[in-house]
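Marked as duplicate of an earlier ticket. Keeping the data here for the record.
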Amino acid sequence: MKIATQLLHSIPVDELTGAISVPIYQTSTFVQESPGINKGFEFSRANNPTRKVLENIICSLEEGHAGFAFASGMAAIDAVMKLLKSGDEIMAVEDTYGGIFQMFQHMFERFGIKANFVDTSNIDKVLAAITPNTKMIWLESPTNPTLRVSDIKSISKIAKQHNVLLVVDNTLCTPLLQQPIPLGADIVIHSATKYLAGHTDVIAGLVVVNTKTLADQLRFNQNISGSILSPFEAWLTIRGIETLCLRLDKQCSNAMAVATWLSAHPAVDKVFYPGLASHKNHHIARKQQKQYGALVSFSLKNDNIKNAIRVVNTTRLFKLAESFGGVKSMLDHPATMTHRNIPEDHRKKTGLQDSCIRLSVGIEDAEDLINDLKQALDKLNLPAGKQITVLQ
């Protein structure tokens, strides 16, 4: 089956009643026939029928061995990081999400797990950064918000040569656009809050692993730490997944139109979108992704925070909010919002400019979205010669 069909029909009909919508098993515990004799469920922290359906769905879509659902994307990441021990090192994508940067630098470093941040879009830099203590390579591809693309298949070969786990955050693509496990990844992570659930009404995280050994370890971490997804949130995520194909196809189409338009605007310095031929790693994205996603970032000429803030404060359809992936378009100013806790020198090193604006493109009419950006950018009052007026 094609993945669009597989997606829908991986959601089972309830065997007990025939319900076509997955039941919400809102229960903490399950009655047992005798000690240790049950219907496969004992306590909802360890396992729950609604959550299990979601875990099976994401496992099937990512072509993995087992799936796990957590209370948030960060909880999912925390469980994966607990596969490591003191003295281990992790090679992490340089322009990582702000929350992950904080987790690696300010939490796990205290436990003796060191993170080395590397430009993983450059294979030579990945090879050079491997040390005897490297136990995990952490990729986001594309990254958020600068949309860098890493060659997952090539990096997976390096990881296997050095007996290193390869983890790929696949949030921006979802399994519809990219499947890291067939490309060689060991673990795939999703903030299901974003495109999978798709309606900005749930917080959820998912993990898929490719072996029984990893599944046993993750299942232990999930149960002992207890940061599991509730039955209702699991049901909301399942319901969101049912329309993922339609939503994401429209969002990707809109994103390409918006990115193309921004590329020609005189106020815009750089546009970050893997679908543009000008993107540094467009050829890699074309090889490993089916489409290019619905996140678009751009920076302004005369890199200036005040101008960026003026733009994000004057859009009408693009709502100013953190997060992305919902059906309604949103925008974010990373330097003062999602990535504000990353030191300025590190932000600049990764190419995250002060004027960078991140767009989460929704399912509205593309022309309306472009017109909204136009009226906001026009307020910057470009004089003749296409020089931007820097606000004081």
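See parent ticket for discussion. The chain has a mean pLDDT of 94.
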